[in-house]
Amino acid sequence: MGRGGVSQAARRSPSLVLLALLLTLVCAAQSLWYQELCSYTWDAIDTDKDVRYKINLCESLPSADCGGSSAICAYDVAKKNLQSVGDSSQKKDLELLIEFNTTRSCTDQNAQHKIHSSISFLCGKTMGTPEFVTSSACVHYFEWRTFVACRNDVFKPKKEVPCYVFDEDGRKHDLTPLIKLSGGYLVDDSDDDVDLFINICRDIGKPDSATSSCPPDSAACLLKGNNAFDVGQPKEGLKLTGKDRLVLQYTKEYSASEKKPDFCDGHSPAVSITFTCPSGRREGADPKLTAKTNCRYEIEWVTEYACHRDYLESHSCILTSDQHDVSID
Length: 329
Prior knowledge:
membrane, 20 strands, single chain, five-stranded mixed sheet
């Protein structure tokens, strides 16, 4: 072994040196404190200026988004203009702060710096979402409340997926408030011989008394007699399939050595949960099983959390008919 721990064979072979470098980069990526957020491209929006952002903390966005070298891409809807406001190669990791620089100078008057973005992280109980804060002098600020920023992994789940979407009008639908940190929701079902429990966007985690026998990775758990079965785990984030209509899907995959439940008739279990916004300010309902065949479970849940966030919030003490479907001053 020569100086610096590199063998003579490696020094003679550029391919071995390149392989060693790639392994080093992979190991570094796997050790990131925000690794759980790396598997997804995230959305945020500046509602005042109607600028929509795509964010990927660990990889470049597709070439269609700002040219293929961007980690944070901003789309100005009015100007129909795409611009990278943070390049993947210009990332700086700090404690609970990630900064993305670019090579393009700010054109604002008296500005002497490059266009860049800054993401601050705060401890939260779920995976959370990046929230646009403000932009000033070519600097774009975001805040992210998430479990990866907490000490000692106190809120870290086995598995969680993004639990929000933006519709075509740029309005946010966020099911994060439905996520349970322990236990699950009992699904309304006419079958008294089984109980189906679900959590939203993450595994059931620390069980409560009703879910104490559920497998640890399950987000959908079927209790049948004295047995508990994992019938679904979160793989992909929440999807928007229509106006105020959201879908979350769980699947259970089996290895060659694992046996599927006998009552599944050879099929792999799967769960589809459809969330709909109640019309006319109707009260929401409990999740309800609408169909089941060969361990494929379809659930409908009417809940105000499926509505866009403007429908649920007001920055004043006034609720309007157009925004909130009710008028209160």
